[in-house]
Amino acid sequence: MQVKLFVGNLAWSIDDQKLESFFRAHGNVQSARVIHDRDTGRSRGFGFVEMDVNDVSAVIRATDGAEVDGRPIRVNEAEDKGGPRGPRRDRDDGYSRRY
Fold it and tell me: What residue spans carry the region label Disordered (predicted)?
């Protein structure tokens, strides 16, 4: 089954290729992407990995807390953003406000 994982606490030195290489030992990686700040281009310290696995729980147990480039990474199943622009934040009166 295909799963999307959130990977946090990444070292600044981790790029897409290093992230993919680490997870390749645990399944067939479809994509691996480190998220960068759009203004500075610097890594934001997290990323996403999409991969085909038989048991997502086993992959999370094997990778969560593993040390990659000197830092223990945090891995869990990514949550759906709820649409193309993220979750809605509605007030009780039904009007949506932006934060």
Answer: 70-99
Going by the DSSP 8-state scheme, the letter that residue 29 receives in this structure is: E
Q: What number is the average pLDDT over the span 14-41?
A: 96
Distance of alpha carbon 88 from alpha carbon 29, whole angstroms: 31
CATH label, 1-51, candidates 3.100.10.20, 3.30.70.330, 2.30.30.100, 3.50.50.60:
3.30.70.330
pTM: 0.79
What is the average pLDDT across 55-65? 97
d(CA 8, CA 14): 11
